[in-house]
Structures are given as structure tokens and as C-alpha cells.
Amino acid sequence: MASRHRSTPTIAPTHGMAATPMAFARVVAEAYARRGMSSAAALVAAQIQPQDLQIETASITARQFETLSAAAMQELDDEGLGAFRRRLPWGSYGMLARASLTAPTLGIALRRWCRHHGLLTDDIRLQLATAQGSATVRIEEAVDLAAHSSAQARAFCLLHVLRNLHGLACWYVESRIPLAGVAFPYPAPAHRAAVDLVFQQPAGGVRFGATAAELRFDARYLQLPIRRDERAMRQMLQRALPLIVLPWRRDRLLVQQVRQVLRERPEDARNASELAQLLATSARTLHRQLRDEGATLQGLKDEHRREHAQELLLRTRQPIKQVAARVGFRNKKSFARAFKNWTGQSPGQFRDAAGPSTHGP
């Protein structure tokens, strides 16, 4: 993925762990060669010595590879780096990302992305399917990619497309989406450990020799809402390539599950033990995972109570004492104190500021 702005990098800091296989850089150099162009300037920008390209055990940093790829995609005007029979002009993947931005959920966004990818090239087809609680994104090869480029370029292409999609999915919902498994239809390469790292060590590992390239994750992530807007998209497209290398630390799935239970079954989730039982976990694990996500159970309960109270105050003319009881407070005084801490206003002030209600009794 790349932005539409062309600006060839001049230097690439090489700090960070050198865990990206030199084989990836070799694929980029091959793309230049197939076009009869020199990769020298791009290699210099990435601080990669040409003679090091042939060292099988060599590695570079993620930043070096980002710089090399960005330069190549602009100079070749091909974000597919020569993997497909037709070039993917600079900005193609940014266009796909923007086309999916207005989707209400991740599932709809990914289905759009997969469908629209076919407008860029018909060499591969991407499909999103769900079964038994698992979501799978699968790549079907309509042509022999290796015959067009090379076996190494084919392998990198399949890896790049899946990692690009996974990185974008995480970005859309601002959440780490742990993968249940990843598979590729070619023998395990010498750098298979690096492939594990690229996909953040999937729970089911990375399998080679499969019938097709695919990745799997919990289908519940498909229901998460898109959390980004056009402004965030513009910022991301200025430097989108790190999406393929930077892991996400925060997983919003549990927070979303807790919110859903509090919204739909509050009477069955009066404390951590009851809520944990509904979510098939322990209270201790529930608290720990929420803490890892930067949330607390009490904070989520307060958020739910606040939203429910505001809705009742705005949409009904129920007495404040009754609103307090409906959102779980024992008396009007404690409710008023909590509501003022949440909003800076008393319940009455909040209702008066909103004007006459047009809904409910």
C-alpha cells in the first residue's frame, strides 16, 4: 500500500532489529531487472550493498525494506512490484483502502477490498469466507505467477498481499487481530522463521505446501466497526508501508464483547464473575485481558450506565429517580453525583439543555 505522493527516499535509518530476509530485497531488485531498469539508487537509499543481495542468510531492518519498496513502487510505477501481468500503478492500494473506508463494519470493508482487488488485476482472486466461527481470506491464482516473474517473486507476492490486507484490517478497527493460522502453496523457504514473525506468530503457525495462500482469524472481528475517517486515511497514506511490518498491541475484541453483554444482558452481568461466565472465561482472566486492552470492567460499566442514562433523559420524560433505578443506582442522590462526574452536569441540567423530548412517555 502506498500514498499517491511521489518522493523518492534519500536515506533510510537502519536502527531496529534486522529480521527482514534479504530474499525480499532480492525480489525488488528482480522487478527492476525485468523492466530493464537499475535498482542502484533504491538500494543506496535503503543502505543495502548490491553484493549482499545474494547472501541467503542476510537480513535487513523493516525500515530498510520499507524504504526500498517505496522507492521501487514509485520508480516502477507498480505497487505489485512486477508480480502481475499488468502493473498496479502507484496509489492503487491506497485507492482500495479508501473505497472500503465508509463500510460500517470490518467484514463489509474486507469484502469490498477483496472484490475491488479484482479490478486491479485478474491474475489472483481474493475471497473472504466464514465457517464455524472462523474467517478465512483465501487467494486463488488464476494464472501461473511464477511463470510471469519467478518462484521467489510469486512467494513474496502472496505473502505481501495477505500481510497488506491483515495490516489494513488492524488499522481500520484500531485493534490487534491475532491470526489463527496462515498457509502458503509453496515449500518452506530458508527464512520461514521470518515469515512467522511477519504474521506475528499465528496460533496455528504458518503452514507451507498448502493448496492456496490464506489466513484465518476469529470471525467475531468482522463485526467490529470501522474506527477510522478520511483524515486518518490521508495521514496513513503518507507512509502506509509500515502497515506490513508493524504489529498492533491492542485487541479490542474483548472490550466489544463486554460492551455487547452490558447492552443486551445487563441483568445477567451484575459482577465480574457473572460476566466472565457468559464470556466463557474466568474473572481473573477477564480483568487481566481488559487491562491489557487499556480498559477496566468498572470503566466499561460506567460507560454503559452513562450512555443508558443519557438516552433515557433525552428520549423519555421519566422522573430522574426512575432513571436512576433503571441504570442501576440505589437512589437519586448517588446517581446525580455520578452523572455530574461523567458529564459535568446534573441530570436535570442535561435534560433541560437538550430541550423538549419528542420520544417516549
**Helix segment count?**
16
Biggest sheet architecture: 5 strands, mixed
* Count of domain modules: 3
**Shape label:** elongated
The helix content is 40-55%
Series of secondary-structure elements, N-terminal to C-terminal: EHHEHHHEEHHEHEEHHHHHHHH
Structural class: alpha+beta
Strand line-up of the largest beta sheet: 3-4-7-5-6
Outline the structure in words.
It is built from 16 helices and seven strands. With 361 residues, it is of the alpha+beta class. It folds into three domains: 80-244, no CATH class; 252-295; 302-361, Arc Repressor Mutant, subunit A (Orthogonal Bundle), CATH 1.10.10. The strands form two sheets. It has a five-stranded mixed β-sheet. The protein has a two-stranded antiparallel sheet with strand order 1-2. Helix 11 crosses helix 12 and helix 14 packs across helix 15 (332-343). The protein is elongated. It starts with 19 loop residues before the first strand and ends in a 7-residue tail after the last helix.
Write the layout of secondary structure elements.
Elements: E1 20-21, H1 22-34, H2 40-45, E2 59-60, H3 62-75, H4 92-99, H5 106-120, E3 124-131, E4 134-141, H6 145-148, H7 151-173, E5 179-184, H8 192-198, E6 206-208, E7 213-218, H9 230-238, H10 253-264, H11 272-278, H12 283-292, H13 297-315, H14 320-326, H15 332-343, H16 347-354
Parallel strand pairs: 5-6
Antiparallel strand pairs: 1-2, 3-4, 4-7, 5-7
Helix pairs in contact: 1-3, 4-5, 5-7, 10-13, 11-12, 14-15
